Amino acid sequence: MPAGTSAKERAYRDTKSRILDGSFPGGDLITEGQVAETLAMSRTPVREAFLRLEAEGLLRLFPKRGALVVAVSPHEVEDVLEARELVEGHALEKLCAVSEAERAVVARALRDVLDVQRAALASGDQRAFAEADRRFHITVVESARNAILLELYASLRDRQLRMNLGSLERGPSRPHEILTQHEAIVDALGRGDRAGTRERLRDHLDATRVSVLGGQRAGTRPAGGHPIGG
Predict the structure, then answer these.
(1) CA distance 83 to 76
(2) 92 vs 144, 159, 201, CA distance in Å?
(3) How much is the CA Rg of the chain, to the nearest whole Å?
(4) Domain 74-213 has CATH 1.10.8.60
(5) Which residues pair with 61 in a beta bridge?
(6) Would you give per-residue pLDDT tens digits along the chain (230 residues)?
(7) Three-state helix/strand/coil letters over the chain
(8) Which of 13, 130, 131, 215 falls 20 to 30 Å from 158 in CA-CA distance?
(9) Structurally, what CATH architecture does the domain formed by 8-69 represent?
(10) What is residue 219's predicted lDDT score, i.e. its pLDDT?
């Protein structure tokens, strides 16, 4: 972290990073003392960081017990994927309507991201793979040049990262499936196939839904039995 970063900011960033990358998985109970000891600081800045993370919906605080890492609920998964389909689908349709030369530029940028994903897969770096996955999709939205939609999409970042990492942990075949699905989206975009890009995107998001939720459905409890919401 940059020199001069406050203790509470360090505690916030470190704890949030551990939640997002799964080091603190949903359903785990963490304590101020645990984080304070790891970061060699007092509990006061950690307490402030926990309050901030609770406001963001990542922690639920229990006085004198600690903080529960809030799991991504099935309802949240469904909501995020629905929002993604609306925004990304619109962006892809818009890109299919531009010139072949413009589509080729976007396709090249997306293939560059796929190269990063392949390298991350080869090295076994799940975090880098998940970040590249997010970069692939945000490149689609950025290329459509709608600042309002981009701002909306960016607000999904943290949720997407947690979902992506959770999806990758479902099995060794999932990263390969993601790459294949991404390639199909790029191929359809290169052809200017509006219906095809929509269909390929829907296939990809449906596979993500199955991978993240497993046997769960909206309205059920996440693994570990901790109810979310209410």
Answers:
(1) 11
(2) 8, 22, 9
(3) 19
(4) no
(5) 67
(6) 555 689 999 999 999 999 988 889 999 999 999 999 999 999 999 999 999 999 999 999 999 899 999 988 899 999 999 999 999 999 999 999 999 999 999 999 999 999 999 999 999 998 899 889 989 999 999 999 999 999 999 888 888 878 877 666 666 788 999 999 999 999 999 999 999 999 999 999 999 998 888 745 544 333 333 322 33
(7) CCCCCCHHHHHHHHHHHHHHCCCCCCCCEECHHHHHHHHCCCHHHHHHHHHHHHHCCCEEEECCCEEEECCCCHHHHHHHHHHHHHHHHHHHHHHHCCCHHHHHHHHHHHHHHHHHHHHHHHHCCHHHHHHHHHHHHHHHHHHCCCHHHHHHHHCCHHHHHHHHHHHHCCCCCHHHHHHHHHHHHHHHHHHCCHHHHHHHHHHHHHHHHHHHHCCCCCCCCCCCCCCCCC
(8) 215
(9) Orthogonal Bundle (1.10)
(10) 40
What are the boundaries of each domain within the chain? Answer: 8-69, 74-213
